[in-house]
Specification:
Length: 199
C-alpha cells in the first residue's frame, strides 16, 4: 500500500516528471496535493499501470485532488539546459501552478533544488511509495502521452503514438531513414552511430 503522507503537513505536494529518457518531445512534470481521505483501488507508480488504467485514474485524481499543476518543458529548452535541469525546472513550474502553496514537497528521485522557502524531501522510487507522487507521475505521463499522440499525426513514420518518443529500435530506424524533426532533442544521441553521421 502506498502511503498518503511523508511530512505530517496537511498540504504536502508530490511531484514527478515523465519523458526524461526520450529522444523527442517535452519533459512533462506534475505536482499534486491530495486530501487526507484520498484513496483509489489501483493508483500506483504510473509505470506499473497499463495505459488504460492511467487514463481511468487521471480524471479521478484531477477531481479529488486539493490542487494539481502540470507543466511542459519543450525539447528546445531541454537541449539548452540539459535533461536533469529540465526535470527540476518542470517540477518547479508544476508546483507554481498549484492554486494553494504547499507546506512541504516530496519529490520522486534524488535530485531537486529548493523551491522558494518550502522544505522538501527527495525519495528514490517515490512514485511507488507515496500516493501524491504516484498521482503526479500519472498526470505527467498521461499529459505527455496525449501530446505525443497529437504530434504523431504530423510525423506518423516515427510511431510516437506507440513509443512516445522513447529510443525504441523502430524509432531509431525511422530517424535513420527520415532524419530528425524539430521535435527531436538535438543534444541527445539519436543514433548509436551518430558520431560518424553528418547530421
Amino acid at each position: 500500500m502506498l502511503e498518503l503522507n511523508y511530512s505530517g503537513f496537511a498540504l504536502e505536494a508530490g511531484t514527478d516528471e515523465a519523458g526524461r529518457g526520450c529522444l523527442s518531445g517535452p519533459v512533462v512534470a506534475a505536482a499534486v496535493i491530495l486530501p487526507d481521505n484520498f484513496s483509489h483501488p489501483f493508483l500506483n507508480d504510473s509505470k506499473q499501470l497499463s495505459e488504460k488504467k492511467r487514463e481511468e485514474v487521471r480524471p479521478f485524481i484531477e477531481q479529488h485532488a486539493i490542487a494539481f499543476g502540470v507543466s511542459f518543458v519543450w525539447q528546445e529548452e531541454v537541449d539548452k539546459i540539459n535533461v536533469l535541469q529540465a526535470s527540476i525546472t518542470g517540477m518547479h513550474r508544476a508546483i507554481e501552478k498549484l492554486n494553494i502553496t504547499p507546506e512541504f514537497i516530496i519529490v520522486d528521485g534524488n535530485k531537486f533544488k529548493n523551491y522558494k522557502e518550502i522544505p522538501h524531501k527527495t525519495i528514490v522510487k517515490g512514485d511507488s511509495k507515496y500516493l501524491s507522487i504516484a498521482a503526479a507521475s500519472v498526470l505527467a505521463k498521461t499529459y505527455r502521452d496525449d501530446y505525443m499522440a497529437k504530434i504523431h499525426k504530423e510525423f506518423p513514420m516515427y510511431n510516437w503514438q506507440k513509443n512516445k518518443g522513447y529510443p525504441t529500435k523502430e524509432h531509431r530506424n525511422a530517424i535513420r531513414e527520415f532524419g530528425a524533426t524539430n521535435y527531436h532533442r538535438k543534444t541527445f544521441k539519436l543514433l548509436p552511430e551518430q558520431i560518424k553521421l553528418d547530421l
